[in-house]
Amino acid sequence: MHWVFEPGFFSSEPVHVALVIGGIAAVVSAVVGVFTVLRGQSFAGHALTDVSTAGGSGALLVGISPLLGFVGFGLLGAGAMDAIGVQRVRGRDLATGIVLGAATGLAALFLFLDTTSGATTGATQQILFGSIFTLDPSEIPIVVVFSIVAVGMIAALYRPLLLASTDTDLAAARGVPVRLVALGFMAALAVAVGLSALAIGAILSTALLIGPAATALRLTNRIGAALVAAVVIGVGVTWLGVLLSYDSYYWVSDQNAVPVSSLIVGLVFVAYLLSGLPAIRRLTGRRTVMVVTEAEEARLRGQRVSSRAAVRSDGDSPRSRRVL
Amino acid sequence: MPRTSAARTPRDHADTAEVLEVDHVSVSLGGRQILDNVSFTVGAGEFTGLIGSNGAGKTTLLRVILGLQHPGAGRVLLSGRARRRRTASVGYVPQKVLLDPDTPMRARDLVGLGLDGQRFGMPLPSATRRAKVDEMLKAVDAERFADARIGNLSGGEQQRVLIAHALIARPRLLLLDEPLANLDLRSGQEIIALLHGIAVEHRIAILLSAHEMNALLPVMNRVVYLAGGRAAAGTTDEVVRSDVLTGLYGHHVDVLRVHGRVIVVAGPQFESDDASEPDGHDPIIHVS
Q1: How far is CA A32 from CA A5, A67, A211, A220, in A?
Q2: What are phi and psi of B212, to 5 degrees?
């Protein structure tokens, strides 16, 4: 086992913090990600990562935790997108694009100021691509609070959100406050993106949001099962990424470790590709096929019996002919 | 199950009042008059066809009844009372839901959301809930594809699931927006027969919009005919008449009855009237 977990993996504090914060970020991203894919709002999710970039780099500039910048700006961006018209299907791309453009410009300015005026020379690297091994343990409580808020919001909105994601009018006709539900979801999305940005960097956080969810949705027909699968995949790739990055320091001599964010994003991509393999799809998709054909069989039993009788009377072997 | 008086009152009340009363409703959208002083009522268990060509205001009228569109003038009463915000007393069946085949929403899930989709929180798995969903899927003959994804279903199959979604909350009134528009003739007839059975068996009033009325003639108790934002309501014999429709369209219209089918034909002076030229889906046929 010693070559799987290189020396010091379990006793290193940066590894502990990385596993805890990375794991929490993966859980929140997976849960929110399933609904993001369900609602067809992946683009909005990606735009919020750019908004978060601006927030995180701005936070460094004024000397507060990047997480507060990520989430704070994300919530503002979600509000701006709602105001411009993200709730209208046709307004979505427009609203998202406008907010994305403005935020990216702001991020460019803040990152420029970070690297020129401050002492934070690694700001660009830290904000855009993450630095999970340098996180302070004191971040953990606020990460936990944000994650409870985001997952709690999704749990509270679960049914109206599903109904509104299916058809807005259908939900509104039932008295669902559609716009409020959409706004609540965008807020949860902003928090998920912020947490994910802290773990693997703002630019890459889309991968942790969409990847595990999209993979899970290929594997199951059930939303509950998809949520569980997305969480398992998200946490799995995150922890595996942390482990591989740690180990790579020992495996590759005279070099630095492979960046953990690249490994996590790479693993997300591999998981998605694997879920498309025929063998895996058959394994998880079989149940549905069976249900449909069984019902078909029951309905068509009359025809089935008569066709079987026809085969039997033809009799393809001498023995069967004799028996009949 | 003990029934509370609160639960019984609207039901008893409803037997005396109309399920739906549309009272002098007018709607203008973007400066255009869509509905002009529309009034009609629907009684319990009645099958009413809402007939009109594209752009006649059918969808707007349904949206007003559902509370999705605020009427500029007039009011809508459900069982004699103003509409409350969260009500399960009106079921709504949109023409189609646009769901990706990748979306893991099964037919069964959507029907379950008909039961409690407006409530906050997550549904607790319960045998009662599952039994209700199974029963409703069976009632619309949708058991075969209960576990299939909505995005993979055909138009007719989706209609059945959406009808089950609307009916499971036991509404008194079911609104359907052009349910036959995307269906082939046979699927359309199956849906009409299914709806007719529901209306008769459970005394659920049905208001169904369509641009072609012939498929509905055998089951329709009443018709609401929309043209140019105005409406005429009554039995088919009262409404689908040359004089009534001529008044509605504002130009001469003939109604022909051939082999039990109704054909609405524009009169000869219509030829010169370019301003109200109907589109290809209009039930009015040119004769020269």
Answers
A1: 31, 18, 12, 17
A2: -135, 125
Q: How far is A132 from chain B (nearest CA, A)?
A: 33
Round to whole Å and give the CA distance between A268 and A25. Answer: 14
For residue range A130-150, list pLDDT tens digits in order.
888 888 888 899 999 999 999
CATH label, A13-276, candidates 3.80.10.10, 3.30.160.160, 1.10.3470.10, 3.40.640.10: 1.10.3470.10
Q: Do A296 and B144 touch (CB under 8 A)?
A: yes
A222–B106 C-beta distance less than 8 A: yes
- Best to test chain B binding among A221, A228, A284 (most B CBs inside 10 Å): A221
CB of B104 less than 8 A from some CB of A: yes
Most A-contacting residue of B76, B89, B120, B168 (CB-CB within 10 A), to test interface: B120
Complex-level ipTM: 0.77
- Closest residue in chain B to residue A35, using alpha carbons only: B103
How does pLDDT run across A71-114, given as a tens digit for each residue? Answer: 999 999 888 888 876 556 566 777 788 888 888 898 888 888 88
Q: What is the mean pLDDT of residues B203-214?
A: 89
Q: Where are the domains of chain A?
A: 13-276, 287-324
Chain B, window 123-152: residues with a beta carbon less than 8 angstroms from a chain A beta carbon: 123, 143-150
DSSP B159-179: HHHHHHHHHTT--SEEEESST
* Nearest CA-CA distance, residue B216 and chain A, Å: 24
- Per-residue pLDDT band at A282 (split at 50, 70, 90): low
- Name the residue among A167, A172, A288 with its Cβ closest to that of B148: A288
**C-beta of residue A71 within 8 angstroms of C-beta of residue A146:** yes
Sorted by where each starts, the structural domains of chain B and their CATH numbers stand as 10-251 (3.40.50.300)
Burial level of B166, CB count in 10 A (0-12/13-18/19+)? buried
pTM of the predicted structure, to 2 decimals? 0.80
Give Cβ neighbours of residue A62 (< 8 Å, ≥ 6 apart). Answer: none
Residue of B nearest to A289 (CA): B148
